[in-house]
Design goal:
The protein has about 1150 residues and is mainly alpha-helical. The chain contains 48 helices and 11 strands. The strands form 4 sheets. The protein has a 5-stranded mixed beta sheet with strand order 6-5-4-3-7. It has a two-stranded antiparallel sheet with strand order 1-8.
């Protein structure tokens, strides 16, 4: 790439650029003695003598006046301006200006060669990484970096430890594969060679060492710079990325760390100026000879143009010099590859949030913040490029056409984009013309149809951003989020002291507003409490706001208190982060309360924002953002170690929130649609509990409410147009995050239950709050389970009070889910019985006696009563005989009640539960008999009948089987019906009882069963053994087999033969050739039945003849019939 770039420059003259400004020279007549020994080298030896030799100086020796002046000029003035201002510049001065013009801060090289940002919460949407030095101090290098080159003339940096890899490299650019780290390794390995600085141009070679799979490769690197900024880079590696490659990094760090080892010459135009005609001709011819294949055509073309008096080249005074630095009119900014920025953003957006693209885009946003903090104009330039690609995202058009919302990930990226533009617009040093230009551009983007709208209740309240001019304080009323955005802008642009002053002013104003609102509320308190409702004075919430005001203030204050902040430069792809450590830093002079610290103010403002009563915004994303922002703030609060000062701040603010009126979400009366305080209260409860238990419980119990599910809309709620939505029959049509909010309410209750273990009074109060405010059965069940686990630890004794709370909650769940469908209902019932068992026998008796308010009949008999009287329960409770009898009696009573209410489902369970009590058992049996004529199915009756036979009641079983048979209907083709086994069992039962019972059942069989194979099976079984073998007392068996020619089997035989005949005709109607073999086997079984009577063979032969006649068209089938049956 470098070779190609140099070749292109030599082959064709290019337009004048900042890297190649025009350098003119005076005519010989007006020439002053610049070539004298005091000038730039002079005479024939000028070229050699212009090499800068730096003398070693002591580390602590101060800069010379020349170096002080040269450093300032090199940083602030374009070299062309220096040439215009002074007619003659001594060569030593030129050398020092050129020397000091290269960047001196390794942090800037790191910034342009890696994604990096300030670790911790400051990298968020409203955060950004602040903490740069005040304006008068200028941005500082990363801790651990080598001293800036030339901090003392003579190469003090060369004597500094070259171990940035373990300093800013490790802290600032973690990740071994990153260009900055790789560049350090290349530098440390001695891969940088042939380094030459000619004016404002640095060149050298960097060698990638050989590996097992790759040979060593040497790349040519060229860097142009101006006013301590790199303005262009070229490397032979062909790097295609936003940031500099490792080879550019290595060469840059070589120049910063080892300036005494760099050959330094003045701009090439100065050297050429010192040559006479012969020297110039020799120089040009040698240059052409060295590169004749590449340069010769261009050289000839230039020669022709110079010799032509009318050529364009002769109309311009001077000639380009790529080593002479930029001109006065050139913008002084670091090199940024705009095309690569566009391509990278476009690529990341096209991936739609996959493959870490969202993370990469957030890293680019963090890079913009870092540039802003360094006062680098490329910050706004890079953000403009990013915005252009965002607006051009084809998904915006697609979503608009489909009428769908953009994804949450995409919307979060747009939020950060907006926050960064606010920072840029509110830059206190942004000129009015520049601000006007930005606003025009923003308006242009905003007018596009695809530009997404803000999601939430923020559109009407936001002031016109064009009026956002810098202010030193906020004693005058101003939109709070906008004022906080000013703080963010100050932090983002490297003005931490000013940001702190403004933050303190905002907090003082908020305190005054809070006090004023509290006084107003005290006068209205009686009226509001009587009405039971309130209006909301805060039309917009600060938590979840697009400008993220509270997080901004909190971060500004905590950053001023952060300890061990040496490694604040981290990589966005590093997951490891150390928790911050804070110390109290007194508020600067001028604060109303000089004893305060920034840390206590941070806690106070966070509590103010989180405790603000605010309406739930409209839209899923806005509501989800409220939750996320709240959790983010609370996670940062949890990093604070609460000492006495912070605890006092916490107590004071909590009391204000509890006493507060419309401004507080924890006040006595709140609006129906205000954002719940459950998550916030959970933090407050845990933080306050060790210090002020009464206040912590009072606050948490107050926060348990969820008005949107509890109160009906009142007239007072419709003071704002969008409140009308909540009055429609659907009670909460726009609370998309309601499930999450209810789960947080449950978490708060669980936290209180855990903390109150062993405290009867507090547990009772918490239970009442749960029963009053939680409306989700699944969440109450979770609380019941949590309480049960806490109350019954494996390693200590049971807490009976908390166990009773668990039981109460479980009973409430049973009542709530009794008449509704719930897939966890069976699990809930089993758990409740377990809990009641743990409580004791009285609890079991109680739920058995009140079963109808808690359980369905099926649940009560099959689960509750069965478990209560089980052997396991008796052993678990160590019950004595009277207690066992009491439980059993309650279970029998329950069983009979359930059987009466739902005999179909409960009759069998009732019989089982009443086995040991004759009277109860008879009652249960009678209930089953009475219900048999009603809605009981044959399956239910057969099940009960089998149970009766198993218990030694065969006659009762026969009666129930007969009733079941009358409910059955088996068609001719239902030879796999599940009731077949029941029919065969019933026939076997009747046969075993005797001839009379069999005779009574067979008519029912004939009427209900039309399947020939089933009937033939029954017939065969009845002829194998003699009837009456059951051994019923008082009955005798004849011991004779029954004949099929006599009743009752004759009726069964005739029915079986008729079934075979009917089934045969039915099957032949729609038979296919592949079923012929199966049909022949069917006829074989039919013949066995036909042959049972004496004249059976004649009947079967006649039957076959009829088939041949009727179905003679089925020739192949009839042929098979003849072959088998004649």
């Amino acid at each position: 790439m470098a070779d190609g770039g140099e070749r292109e420059e030599l082959l064709s003259p290019s337009p004048v650029s900042p890297a190649k400004r025009q350098c003119s020279w005076p005519s010989p007549q007006a020439h002053h003695p610049r070539g004298s020994p005091g000038a730039a080298g002079g005479g024939a030896g000028g070229v050699g003598s212009s090499c800068l030799v730096l003398g070693a100086r002591p580390h602590l020796q101060p800069d010379s006046l020349l170096d002080c002046a040269a450093k300032t000029v090199a940083e602030k003035w374009a070299y062309e301006r220096v040439e215009e201002r002074f007619e003659r510049i001594p060569e030593p001065v030129q050398r020092r200006i050129v020397y000091w013009s290269f960047p001196r801060n390794e942090r800037e090289i790191c910034m342009y060669s890696s994604f990096q940002y300030r670790g911790g919460p400051g990298a968020g949407a409203a955060g950004g990484a602040a903490g740069a030095s005040p304006a008068e101090e200028g941005p500082q290098p990363p801790p651990g970096a080598a001293a800036p080159a030339g901090s003392a003339p003579g190469g003090v940096a060369a004597g500094a430890s070259p171990g940035l890899g373990a300093g800013a490299g490790a802290a600032g650019c973690g990740g071994e594969g990153l260009p900055f780290r790789r560049g350090i390794r290349l530098l440390d390995s001695g891969s940088v060679e042939n380094v030459l600085q000619v004016g404002f141009h640095l060149s050298g070679t960097v060698t990638e060492l050989a590996t097992a799979s790759e040979p060593a490769v040497t790349y040519k690197v060229a860097i142009s710079f101006d006013r301590c900024k790199i303005t262009s880079v070229t490397c032979g590696c062909g790097n295609k990325d936003i940031f500099y490659c490792a080879h550019v990094v290595a060469l840059s760090l070589y120049r910063i760390r080892k300036p005494d080892q760099v050959k330094l010459r003045l701009p090439i135009s100065e050297t050429l100026f010192q040559m006479n005609r012969d020297q110039l001709q020799k120089f040009i011819q040698y240059l052409i000879t060295a590169h004749h294949t590449e340069v010769l055509p261009t050289a000839q073309k230039l020669a022709d143009e110079i010799l032509s008096s009318n050529s364009e080249i002769n109309q311009v005074n001077g000639a380009p010099d790529p080593t002479a630095g930029a001109s006065i009119d050139d913008e002084n900014c670091w090199h940024l590859d705009e095309e690569q920025v566009k391509e990278q953003v476009k690529l990341f957006l096209s991936q739609g949030g996959y493959c870490g693209s969202g993370k990469q885009l957030n890293s680019m946003f963090a890079k913009v913040r870092e540039m802003l903090r360094m006062r680098d104009s490329n910050g706004a330039r890079m953000l403009t490029l990013i915005t252009e690609q965002f607006v051009a995202d084809p998904r915006l058009t697609l979503w608009r056409q489909q009428g769908t919302n953009m994804t949450d990930k995409c919307r979060q990226l747009w939020d950060e984009l907006g926050a960064l533009w606010v920072c840029i617009i509110l830059n206190p040093h942004c000129k009015l013309e520049e601000k006007s230009c930005w606003l025009q551009q923003l308006q242009k983007w905003s007018d596009l149809d695809v530009c997404p709208l803000e999601d939430g209740n923020y559109g009407h309240e936001l002031p016109n951003i064009t009026n956002a001019l810098p202010q030193s304080a906020i004693h005058s009323p101003e939109h709070v989020p906008t004022a906080c955005a000013r703080v963010d802008a100050l932090r983002s642009h490297g003005y931490p002291k000013e940001a702190l002053r403004l933050t303190v002013a905002i907090i003082n104003t908020l305190r005054l507003q809070q006090q004023r609102q509290l006084e107003i509320y005290k006068h209205q308190k009686k009226e509001l409490l009587q009405r039971g409702t309130t209006t909301i004075t805060n039309l917009e919430g600060w938590v979840g706001h697009p400008l993220d005001p509270i997080d901004c203030l909190f971060l500004t204050l905590t950053e001023a208190c952060r300890l061990n902040d040496d490694g604040y430069l981290e990589m966005s792809d590093m997951n490891e982060s150390r928790p911050p450590v804070y110390q109290h830093v007194p508020v600067a002079a001028g604060s109303p309360n000089s004893s305060e610290s920034y840390l206590s103010l941070a806690l106070e403002v966070a509590l103010m924002g989180l405790g603000q009563q605010r309406l739930m915004p409209e839209g899923l994303y806005a509501q989800d953002k409220v939750c996320r922002n709240e959790e983010q703030l609370l996670s940062q609060l949890q990093e604070l170690q609460l000492d006495d000062e912070l605890v006092q701040t916490l107590q004071k603010q909590c009391i204000l929130l509890l006493e507060g009126g419309p401004f507080s979400g924890l006040g006595e009366v709140i609006h129906r649609e205000s954002v719940p305080m459950h998550t916030f209260a959970k933090y407050l409860f845990s933080a306050l509990l060790p210090h002020d238990p009464d206040l912590s419980y009072k606050l948490a119990l107050r926060a348990m409410r969820l008005p949107v599910l509890e109160n009906s809309a009142s007239a007072g709620d419709t003071s704002h147009p969008h409140h009308m939505v909540s009055v429609v029959p659907s009670r909460y049509p726009r609370w998309f995050t309601l499930g999450h909010l209810e789960s947080q309410q449950c978490e708060l209750a669980s936290t209180m239950l855990t903390a109150a273990k062993g405290d009867t009074l507090r547990l009772r109060t918490i239970l009442e709050a749960i029963q009053k405010h939680i409306h989700s059965s699944s969440l109450i069940f979770k609380l019941a389970q949590d309480a049960f686990k806490i109350a019954t630890p494996t390693d200590s004794s049971t807490d009976s009070t908390l166990l009773n709370v668990a039981l109460e909650l479980g009973l409430q769940v049973m009542r709530m889910t009794l008449s509704t469908l719930n897939w966890r209902r069976r699990e809930m019932v089993r758990w409740l019985v377990t809990c009641a068992t743990e409580v004791g026998v009285r609890a079991l008796v109680s739920i058995l006696q009140s079963w109808y308010t808690l359980f369905t009949p099926t649940e009560a008999t099959s689960i509750v009563a069965a478990t209560a009287v089980s052997h396991t329960t008796i052993l678990r409770l160590s019950l004595d005989y009277p207690q066992r009898e009491e439980l059993a009696s309650c279970a029998r009573t329950l069983a009979l009640q359930c059987a009466m209410k739902d005999p179909q489902s409960c009759a069998l369970s009732a019989l089982t539960l009443c086995e040991k009590d004759h009277i109860a058992f008879e009652a249960a049996y009678q209930i089953a008999i009475d219900a048999a004529a009603g809605g009981m199915t044959h399956s239910q009756l057969f099940t009960i009948a089998r149970y009766m036979e198993l218990r030694g009641y065969p006659l009762r079983a026969f009666k129930l089987a007969s009733l079941a048979m009358s409910h059955l209907n088996l068609a001719y083709n239902q030879d796999t019906h599940p009731a077949i086994n029941d029919v065969l069992w019933a026939c076997a039962l009747s046969h075993s009882l005797g001839k009379n019972e069999l005779a009574a059942l067979i008519p029912l069989v004939v009427k209900s069963v039309h399947c020939a194979t089933v009937l033939s099976d029954i017939l065969r079984r009845c002829t194998v053994t003699a009837p009456g073998l059951a051994g019923i007392p008082g009955r005798r068996s004849s011991g004779k087999l029954m004949s099929t020619d006599k009743a009752p089997l004759r009726q069964l035989l005739d029915a079986t033969i008729n079934a075979y005949i009917n089934t045969t005709h039915s099957r032949l109607t729609h038979i296919s050739p592949r079923h012929y073999g199966e049909f022949i086997e069917f006829l074989s079984k039919a013949r066995e039945t036909f042959l049972l009577p004496q004249d059976g063979h004649l009947q079967f032969a006649q039957f076959i003849d009829n088939l041949k006649q009727i179905y003679k068209g089925k020739k192949k089938l009839m042929l098979l019939v003849r072959e088998r049956f004649g």
